[in-house]
Amino acid sequence: ACVFSDVQSAPPIEVFLLNRLCAESKDPNKVNLGVGAYRTDEGKPWVLPVVVAAELQMANDKTLNHEYLPVAGLPDFRTAALRVLFGSEHKVITENKVEGFQGLGGTGALRLAAEFLKKILNYDIVYVSSPTWGNHKGIFKAAGFSQIKEYRYWDADTRGLNCAGMCEDLMAAPPKSVVILHAVAHNPTGVDATKEEWAQILHVCRERELFVLFDIAYQGFATGNLDEDAWAPRYFADQDMDLFVAQSFSKNFGLYNERIGNLAVVSKDASKLPEIRSQMEITIRVMWSNPPNHGARIVATVLNNKAYYEDWKGQIRTMSDRIMKMRHELTDNLKKLGTPGNWDHIVKQIGMFSYTGLSAKQVEYMLSKNVFMLGSGRISIAGLTPKNVAYVAKCMDEAVRA
Ligand code: LMR
What are phi and psi of 243, to 5 degrees? Predict the structure, then answer.
């Protein structure tokens, strides 16, 4: 018998299944609102001009080569990533209380965090928001966490944050729990805590001695301003919390397939960083040995060059402005159609996504019209264009009335 004869199919990975179904569809009206990836007004992927400039410069730089990087990653990248996250004047930087470790995208940074928390610090319980990004639970399960729990987050009635429920659930967390907090532009809901609410959340994390792991995959996409979007992790670091922050540059650099991320480790005891680094390196060594260069070099080249850095900030604004414009256009179209219900949340939600509130049955209708979106009702606003937004609104209108 074949040794593989008992292998069963795993469930599909929803976002990538949607990509395939959309690519295969022959419908000229098809729209991909599944994966969180930026698109232009023409519905095309966008290679940021500043990325092209950096790549050209790299291609002509005869001092570069394809030797292995250090296990912890490209040094210029790691320090630049931390400056984007915290701002160069933040005390964790000036007091040398933070170090970065290059990860394979945000996922790799999260996986590294999970491995370290489980194997080195013996954590075994993790709390994720309900709902959360489709990969959080799997990453922690794969690292051996035996308890993956949810805290309340989305309030279906207000289509906003249930901060009281969230704090209550976290207050009931057992000692030695990890909590994953979306730093900005919550995926999938597009709903973030206010500054006052963050203060309450911090209070609970302190009180229960929860280990906070921020996931920041959309810095720049909420307000278009990198500093404003990193407010929450900076605030927690201000308050002398030991922290992990998993950064992704997939979205804000459009470097999805280069797998470039960074795990920032903030230790209030700076003298522990060498030991932490050595354990991180051993953890990395058995997972990917050492990280890929290309994406790290692009990000480092841009962040370490004043002119490029300014260009990049402008290009982030181009992306976040277009997304905001599409939120308004979708809402205006629904209003024009007189679609039953209130759709103001589409404009109020931030980042790349809207949690539309469409039911599973209504999503099924959307799929039947070749408008591809997650079963949860999440749409990627970046997939909307001036050409397809009226069609999407019309399908939503029909779905709601059906
Ligand atoms: C998404 O949420 O659509 C993206 O982060 C892609 C992914 O890996 O799920």
Answer: -145, 155
- Nearest atom (ligand 1) to Cα of 380: 3
**335 in a structural domain:** yes
Angle between helices 49-59 and 306-337 (to 10 degrees): 150
How many angstroms is it from 217 CA to the middle of ligand 1? 10
Annotation marks residue 133 as catalytic = yes
Counting from 1 in the atom list of ligand 1, the atom nearest the Cα of 134 is 9
Regarding the beta carbon of 15 and ligand 1, being less than 6 Å apart is answered: yes
Atom 5 of ligand 1: nearest residue by CA position: 36
The residues pairing with 214 across neighbouring beta strands, listed in sequence order, are: 181, 245
Residues spanned by the domain of 358: 14-46+320-401
175 pLDDT exceeds 90?
no
The question of whether 251 is a catalytic residue gets the answer yes
242 assigned to active site: no
Q: Note the pLDDT of residue 219.
A: 97
Overall domain count for the chain: 2
pLDDT at 244: 98
Pair (295, 372) in one structural domain: no
Mean of pLDDT over the chain: 97
Whole-number Cα distances in Å, 197 to 83, 161, 162, 232, 297 = 25, 10, 10, 10, 37
Give the residue-averaged pLDDT of 227-250. 97
Say if strands 160-161 and 177-182 run parallel, antiparallel, or are unpaired.
unpaired
154: pLDDT confidence band, cut at 50, 70 and 90? very high
Please identify which residue in the block is written with the tokens 């999503």.
363
pLDDT in tens, 273-290: 999 999 999 999 999 999
Query: Of these residues, 46, 97, 118, 133, which one is catalytic?
Result: 133
Query: Peptide bond before 28: cis, by omega within 30 degrees of 0?
Result: no
CATH code, domain with 368: 3.90.1150.10
Note whether residue 386 is domain-resident.
yes
Alpha carbon of residue 390 to chain centroid: 28
Let me know whether 345 and 296 are in one domain.
no
- Taking CA atoms only, the protein residue closest to ligand 1 atom 1 is 36
Assigned token pair, 169: 């659930």
